[in-house]
Write a structure and sequence with these properties.
Helix content is 47%, strand content 6%. With 601 residues, it is mostly helical. The chain has a 4-stranded mixed sheet. It binds protoporphyrin IX containing FE.
């Protein structure tokens, strides 16, 4: 079996790709038949065509012995040669036609965008802080498909849902950018999030989907319920560290369900390792975070060289990453044979034979890398979603009251919510959808890469371009959402609900954790609101005004001095900035429920 995770050469172009290029990108009819019609036609072949030429020379015998003149040989060729000549002509014409089309396509303009400078292009225009907001502003001037270039690297930002959905669903748009820092230096290319579109990625995706699809992910619900209840206990005891507690509960659940390793504290080895590894990787995944992604040759600069802090950072991240991916996988194998074994994604896959075309070694390698990025892909995004939900609850107390009223009516005050209640809580579901729209956890999604030249809306998108969907701009599109700046769960109720935000991405690379994470969000926020009130108050109970604000870039303080103090790294995830949120139990009965809830399970 060919494994193409180290090379992009094995990219399986679909056989129809060329046809699509010719026809889909053309608004004119194919010119090939016209071209043929203009050529002088060959005389029809008839039996007389095969008779020898009339002999006009008296030197008949010698003429016949001579080698025929080339012109005569062409004119009087056999039908087999005529057919071959026709095939060659058609092939040549097709090639000429394709070259002409390609030339015409390359003569097309790139999508509009800010004018750059020679050589550095738009380097100084690139917004490192909350890039989705300036991009959305620019798109008002340049349109839904916008082009930005940095040192020759083409970046296309798409701000329309329909365009992103149409383009990014295609195989040619399903690759990931080649990022030197996170891929080559940190060695994370084989992970499911970063792997190039190819056989290795397809296998990882297939295996992961077997556990995370709508029906299989039901097996994780009991543990998600149990962890939500542990979280309530934690919030009762230490209400101020609510974001840390939510992050831990989600990370614990993902590690346990992925590897079957029991996690007992935030200091457990794999929680710490996963968190630390992911802290570095999540930023390196954003194209443009590191200069070495623009100038790959910089990776050969020695670590001691001034400004080469990225090399030291990469070395540390690589070692941590290997420890996490290999260590957790080995621990999962040990956990499978332990007395206290749990159902897990890795355990379930390892207990199967694996596909015939793979050796056992290849099968295990694929599972290891499929599992290795789930903590990273799932924890921050889900934590950010829940944090935004809580923020909207303190910003809009009327909505909070309405959610609680619905919970009281359906669940009552004598028990905690379960997954069976979900279908009966439409207002809560609408509020979750609206909070995801209000601020998406990954406002610029995860970058895709185009593997073939394309022409879209009369613009040329070059092969290798990085494609960034501006999900934030899509969510704030006035044509799609009435008063998009308003928080209004009602837009998701009624006979014609609004479009759900594309927070889970697009096409073949769309999020694999959609069912798992929406279940986690539901059980966490329903449990919290059924027993706690959230208020915009400081720790002394004084009301405070909150201006919603979200993170959009990280300074290098996160990177323990490996990078230059002026370096700012754009982050993949955007979280609400810390906001005052006083969490108090709704009643004595609620306190009893929280305490009982954890011991019941
Ligand atoms: C609210 C929570 C989440 C959000 C908003 C979210 C969002 C996203 C987005 C935007 C992408 C990129 C899609 C694209 O390239 O177009 C993605 C990819 C991915 N997500 Fe999530 N995600 C969430 C939770 C999770 C969870 C809980 C898991 C796993 C347990 C997960 C696993 C993945 C994986 C494996 C990928 C990579 C898919 C690929 O490249 O083939 N996600 N997610």
């Amino acid at each position: 079996m060919s494994r193409d995770f180290n090379t992009r050469r094995c990219f399986p172009y679909p056989p129809h790709a060329l046809n699509c290029y010719v026809h889909l990108n053309s608004d004119r009819p194919c010119l090939l038949p016209l071209y043929f019609n203009q050529r002088p036609r060959l005389p029809p072949l008839s039996p007389s065509s095969f008779s020898p030429p009339p002999i006009s020379s008296p030197h008949t015998d010698r003429t016949l012995l001579r080698k025929p003149e080339p012109a005569l040989a062409t004119t009087y060729t056999s039908p087999m040669f005529a057919r071959e000549a026709l095939y060659v002509a058609v092939a040549l014409l097709s090639v000429a036609f394709l070259i002409r089309r390609r030339r015409r396509a390359s003569a097309l303009p790139l999508p509009p965008g800010p004018r750059g400078w020679p050589v550095i292009d738009n380097l100084f225009d690139w917004p490192f802080e909350s890039a989705w907001i300036p991009f959305a502003e620019w798109s008002k001037k340049f349109g839904d498909i916008m082009h930005i270039k940095i040192f020759g690297l083409h970046i296309v930002v798409i701000s329309s849902f329909d365009t992103a959905n149409t383009l990014m669903s295609q195989a040619t748009y399903s690759d990931r950018p080649i990022l030197t820092m996170v891929g080559k230096l940190m060695n994370f290319t084989p992970s499911i999030v970063l792997a190039p579109y190819g056989e290795h990625w397809k296998s990882m995706r297939r295996f992961t989907q077997q556990s995370l699809n709508r029906s299989s992910s039901l097996m994780f619900l009991p543990s998600q319920l149990s962890d939500a209840r542990l979280l309530l206990q934690e919030l009762l005891e230490r209400p101020t560290n609510y974001i840390g507690a939510i992050r831990y509960a989600l990370g614990k659940n993902i590690i346990e369900n992925t590897y079957g390793i029991r996690i007992t504290s935030p200091n457990s080895e794999y929680v710490k390792l996963s968190r630390e590894t992911h802290e570095v990787i999540q930023n390196a995944v954003v194209p443009g975070s590191f200069f070495v992604d623009v100038f790959p040759a910089l990776r050969f600069v020695p670590e001691w060289f001034p400004g080469a802090g990225f090399k030291r950072l990469a070395r540390v991240a690589k070692a941590r990453g290997e420890h996490m991916v290999d260590g957790a996988f080995d621990a999962a194998k040990r956990a499978m044979i332990g007395e206290d074994s749990m159902v897990s994604l890795v355990g379930t896959l390892l207990s199967r034979e694996g596909p015939e075309e793979m050796t056992r070694e290849e099968y295990e390698y694929t599972i290891k890398w499929a599992a290795g990025s789930l903590y990273g892909a799932g924890t921050e995004s889900t934590t950010s979603s829940i944090a935004t939900f809580l923020l909207t609850m303190v910003l809009f107390p009327d909505v909070q009251k309405r959610v609680q009223a619905e919970l009281d009516a359906v669940v009552g005050r004598k028990r905690l919510p379960t997954f069976e209640d979900r279908a009966s809580l439409p207002y809560l579901e609408a509020t979750i959808k609206e909070s995801l729209r209000f601020h998406p956890p990954t406002p610029l999604g995860i970058a895709h890469r185009l593997v073939e030249d394309d022409v879209v809306q009369g613009y040329r998108i070059p092969k290798g371009a990085i494609i960034l969907p501006n999900i934030w701009a899509m969510n704030m599109n006035e044509k799609q959402y009435e008063h998009p700046e308003r928080f209004s769960p009602e837009r998701y109720l009624g006979p014609t609900p609004a479009l759900e935000s594309p927070v889970f991405g697009f096409g073949r690379r769309a999020c694999l954790g959609v069912h798992y994470s929406t279940a986690a969000i539901f059980i966490t926020v329903s449990s919290i609101l059924s027993v706690f009130d959230l208020r915009a108050q400081d720790k002394d109970g004084k009301d405070v005004q909150i201006e919603p604000a979200f993170t959009g870039g990280k300074s290098n303080t996160q990177h323990h001095g490996y990078l230059h103090p002026l370096t700012r790294i754009p982050s993949l995830y955007s979280h609400p900035k810390p906001f005052p949120c006083r969490i108090t139990p709704r009643s004595q009965e609620a306190i009893e429920l929280v305490k009982a809830g954890t011991s019941v399970l």
